[in-house]
Design a protein that fits this description.
alpha/beta
């Protein structure tokens, strides 16, 4: 495996992963429901991600539902020793394509076992507890739900824990219950609510994994981004990914795509070099 991916590596507990990872959500059908139009192409993207050196794949059994986990197993099992698959629990899918919460102890236990079974694993490397709803974080206690995952960790089914779609207060509450190795929240150049949280987590050695709404960086339609991208001869997406990698060493990327060509483009773009002036110009977008 190559180690030349942009950003180098980060350690999640005792797991070393590439900071440039891969998010499997887009491998499911439209609206993250049902199978993809071309399952063979989806498996090819997963194999190419591993061939290019990516050691961090993000998934969830709710994607499809079940579709992305099945594709990952078909494409990559038995898994390379260096590959780490991160999943999340705490929501399921309804017939309308919604994401209703499923954070009661029984649902969480079932979700963990479903992930294990469909991925073909005996233990999950990292499980993120998905909080809030489709609109974002919701202030509410997390002790019962997170405590259930801690129990599953003690039973040997989970190596490491994290939280997703969480407020800073929920992150603090979870950390008071048990160690976490990652926080997965919405964040990008234009949506920088978590700036202070990122810095706090970096100081504690905890990863921050930004995710974006379907459609990618659609909130980033700005003349500043377009200007920097044009000057560097790059796409706005490439600039936005590269900005995230330079923002803080604890930021891990999981851009998703169903295209091998787009995967390679994302990797190349994330390695863009910035001048101090470029960064100052980009930083103003979220100011």
């Amino acid at each position: 495996m190559t180690t030349s991916l942009p950003g180098g590596t980060w350690t999640l507990g005792d797991l070393t992963v590439t900071r440039f990872g891969y998010g499997a959500m887009q491998l499911a059908g439209p609206g993250v429901m049902g199978p993809p139009a071309d399952p063979g192409a989806a498996r090819a993207v997963l194999r190419e991600a591993v061939a290019l050196g990516i050691t961090h794949i993000d998934t969830a059994d709710a994607y499809g539902p079940h579709v992305t986990n099945q594709l990952i197993r078909e494409a990559l099992h038995p898994y390379p020793a260096a590959l780490h698959i991160v999943t999340k629990v705490g929501a399921h899918r309804d017939e309308q394509g919604g994401w209703p919460p499923a954070r009661d102890p029984e649902s969480l236990r079932r979700a963990v076992h479903d992930n294990l079974d469909r991925l073909g694993l005996d233990v999950l490397d990292l499980v993120n507890l998905r909080l809030g709803n489709a609109l974002g974080p919701v202030p509410e206690p997390v002790a019962e739900a997170f405590g259930t995952l801690v129990e599953l960790q003690r039973e040997g089914l989970i190596r490491h824990l994290g939280v997703s779609n969480a407020t800073p207060e929920q992150v603090a509450e979870a950390r008071a219950i048990a160690p976490i190795v990652s926080v997965q929240n919405m964040y990008n150049l234009a949506h920088r609510t978590d700036d202070a949280l990122i810095d706090e987590l970096a100081a504690a050695g905890i990863a921050y994994v930004p995710f974006f709404p379907l459609g990618g960086f659609s909130p980033l339609q700005s003349s500043a981004l377009d200007s920097v991208a044009a000057r560097l001869g790059a796409t706005p997406m490439s600039v936005a990914l590269a900005w995230l990698l330079q923002r803080s060493p604890n930021i891990l990327l999981i851009p998703g795509t169903s295209s091998v060509a787009h995967l390679r483009e994302n990797i190349a773009g994330a390695g863009l070099p910035f001048s101090a002036g470029d960064i100052a110009e980009l930083d103003k977008i979220g100011a």
